[in-house]
Amino acid sequence: MNTKESKYKTIYNSPLGRLTLVSDGENLIGVWLAGQKYFCATVNELLSEKDDLPVFIKVKKWLERYFNGENPSIKELPLAPQGNDFRQRVWDILCKIPYGETVTYGDIAKEIANALGRKSMSAQAVGGAVGHNPISIIIPCHRVVGSDGSLTGYAGGIDKKIKLLELEGVDISRYKIPVKGTAL
Prior knowledge:
By secondary structure, this protein is an alpha/beta fold. The protein has helices at residues 54-67, 85-94, 105-116, 123-131, 158-167; strands at residues 7-14, 17-23, 28-33, 47-49, 103-104, 144-145.
């Protein structure tokens, strides 16, 4: 296996539990919570442990700042999530959701429909792309909520979604916690 095809991993112990960070050697291609749905779904190669990779050092510092209540910019990190054009479009929109704010799956669907010149777009299709976000926390899929105010759809678990939103100062009391939701 040559360097260009190699993938690397390291572990970051966060307040939410173990995070597995994955890189292609230059860019971050994954951040997954332990037990997360679709864990390492975009990685087909064997991963070599490499804790001292410069991108991992940078990401760990970014995460430290984030978990300390700061709002580090996503643009500080070399991100390269792996996915089709539709998913990439959704993930780009996620990156633009301001810290401490939320949007609905429907809002994202409308934005994509407008960009594509369509009358509508499926919020469920958007939900699928959001749920398959391979760079959890940094690409803030936790900031997406149901149009009915439900905190549904977080592949890392609703409890983790709530903790991330609370960390960002979001008033959780205005949202409903689903009895049974998607991506739990």
